[in-house]
Design goal:
This protein has 378 residues and is α/β, with parallel strands linked by helices. The chain has two domains: 272 residues, 3-Layer(aba) Sandwich (Carbamate kinase); 93 residues, Archaeosine Trna-guanine Transglycosylase, Chain: A, domain 4. The chain has 16 helices and 13 strands. The strands form two sheets. It has an eight-stranded mixed β-sheet with strand order 3-4-2-1-5-7-8-6, with helices on both faces. It has a five-stranded mixed β-sheet with strand order 10-9-11-12-13, with helices on both faces. Helix 4 crosses helix 5. The longest helix has 23 residues. The protein is globular, with a radius of gyration of 22 Å.
Length: 378
């Protein structure tokens, strides 16, 4: 059976970001499974033969290191995790190179950290590098630079990285390959009547609650991280599909338009690269808490944020830093570039614009965050 909606999604996807999890690539002993990597490489070759540009965001370096050292399970201490990543990354890349050699597809290793996305200059450099690799017919294989990324190993995952890469390249489709069939309305491990959701029009709090807090034995992510990654992509106007990467031919089925896995439809208008970076990539340096009227003005009426609507300031930031806008209950609804430092913002919050000059001795900006430098993220 062919799903016409999925058929259209894959047909329009000129660029595809595929994220593959550790448990998809490794066997029960934690070692890389050569047959699984070869199946993935074969399918990527066929996708590229359709004229698509493909980026592979691959986990597995730490898992490969665990297998190479015969540890049996993933360590819990940071230095050991970093050492496993250092050992496993070369094994992972060599395995991909060998699998793709029969198709004469050159591979390119790209190791990134969260700070590469925070910096606008480094962000654009990464984008330009990937575009150059496309021109040369290469398959970029991206992973977190786990040997130096302290926070990323402890709190992050490659699901999030894949979503950031999707927005970086304005790729119309993100595919998250895991070891489950997709998103279920309840836990299929405990509820035999759990139903697979084939299509999700919008990722709302109810969908997030379905994700639970499951986590795999070798990987860092769980279902919730995949849903959040899908939300990052769909909020920027792209589609996402979660599917079982351990099923042979799963990518072939997806690109044939078959209703496998869970399709998350875009629920935001397509954004410019600048807006994607501002709203969904760069990490906020601080937070502006606003009243109900200010949230309505920003979120529904397209207005700038004025100081009179700000009721609280937290964090330490300078003029030009990215800040989060949230309501009194702590719900983030927008991000933007602050026209004021955290110190000055705290001094002028709640004031009318004509009172700023009297307090600060100068009146640089009427708005705390101008509409042109602001993105609604709900």
């Amino acid at each position: 059976m062919i799903d016409p909606v999925r058929q259209e999604v894959v047909a329009l996807a000129h660029t595809v970001v595929i994220k593959v999890g550790t448990n998809v690539l490794t066997g029960a002993d934690g070692r890389l499974a050569p047959e699984r990597l070869q199946q993935l490489a074969d399918q990527i070759y066929r996708i590229r033969a359709l004229g698509k540009k493909v980026v592979l965001v691959s986990s597995g370096a730490i898992g490969a290191g665990v297998g190479r050292l015969n540890l049996g399970k993933r360590p819990i201490h940071l230095p050991q995790l970093q050492a496993c990543a250092a050992i496993g990354q070369s094994l992972l890349m060599r395995a991909y190179e060998e699998c793709l050699a029969r198709y004469e597809i050159p591979t390119a290793q790209v190791l990134l950290t969260a700070s590469d996305f925070d910096s606008r200059v480094r962000y654009l450099n990464a984008r330009n590098t990937l575009l150059a690799l496309f021109e040369w017919g290469c398959l970029p294989i991206i992973n977190e630079n786990d040997t130096v990324s302290v926070a990323e190993i402890k709190f992050g995952d490659n699901d999030h990285l894949a979503a950031l890469v999707t927005n970086l390249l304005q790729a119309p489709l993100l595919i998250l390959l895991t070891v489950v069939d997709g998103l279920f309305d309840s836990d299929p491990n405990t509820n035999p009547r759990a139903r697979l959701l084939t299509t999700v029009p919008r990722i709302d709090p109810a969908i997030l609650n379905m994700a639970g807090s499951s986590r795999s034995s070798l990987g860092t992510g769980g279902m919730r991280s995949k849903i959040r990654a899908a939300r990052l992509a769909t909020a920027a106007g792209e589609s996402a599909i979660m599917a079982n990467g351990s099923v042979p031919g799963i990518l072939d089925d997806l690109f044939a338009g078959k209703p496998v896995g869970t399709l998350f439809l875009p629920h935001g208008g397509t954004m410019t690269a600048w807006k994607r970076w501002l709203g969904f990539t760069a990490r906020p340096r601080g937070q502006l808490v606003v009243d109900r009227g200010a949230r309505d003005a920003v979120e529904t009426r397209g207005r700038s944020l004025l100081p009179i609507g700000v009721v609280g300031v937290s964090g330490s930031f300078i003029k030009g830093d990215v800040v989060s806008l949230s309501d009194a209950s702590g719900v983030e609804f927008a991000r933007g570039l602050s026209n004021y430092s955290s110190t000055d913002a705290a001094r002028i919050c709640g004031l009318r614009s004509d009172q700023i000059g009297d307090l600060l001795g100068h009146f640089p900006y009427e708005e705390v965050v101008h509409r042109d430098n602001l993105v609604v993220v709900v």
